[in-house]
Amino acid sequence: MSVFPQVDFSMSRLTCRGNRRFGGKTLLSPERADEQHDLNGKRWGSVSAGRKVQKQDRGQSLVEFALVAPVLLVILLGVVDLGRAIYYYNTLSNLAREGARAGIVLQTSDEWNQPGNLPDALNSITYSGISSYTGTNSIAGKIASEAVIFDLSKVTVKIEATMGKSNYAALPLTVTVQYPFDLLYANWIAASPTITMTGQATMRIE
Prior knowledge:
Number of helices: 5
Radius of gyration: 45 Å
Strand order of the largest sheet: 3-4-5-6
Helix content: 40-55%
Low-confidence stretches: 9-22
Mean pLDDT: 78
Order of helices and strands: HEEHHEHEEHE
Strand content: 15-25%
Number of strands: 6
Largest sheet: 4 strands, antiparallel
């Protein structure tokens, strides 16, 4: 009987079942190596699939923006035009009140017969373009001095009161101011009709 122990060098005994370090590197067993290979393949597959989904989302977002942008632009321009229309209306109403205040203090027939006012013998008069009345002491002149944002050649002023008003007090005096209003966004798309904005005020002659 041999005194040396029996050593079984079969491959089944030498097969590594876990991780072993060799030369500073970690070696995997065949089973672990196969598992790691499958795991890496799944990871790379999921990354590439995620990139494809991101590209599809970006393309879809661009298409949706291209469809929605014109609608948003029209709405924005419509809001701007609405704001301009409200501003024009308020300004014309203020101009009509200023003109009416200038008219109710007129007393004599000579004052009423001045250019830019309503002659005493008439019930109404219309001035189409008031640029020539700037600086005059009249109803049209008062409106011209206040209408700094408008083209005075396009401003129309209509004055109405009862004939012989210089002899009577408390008669109503009505001043109407009109100005053409153009839509911004409609002119960019096609020729739009001109809208006439109107401001009116009525006061009693003092």
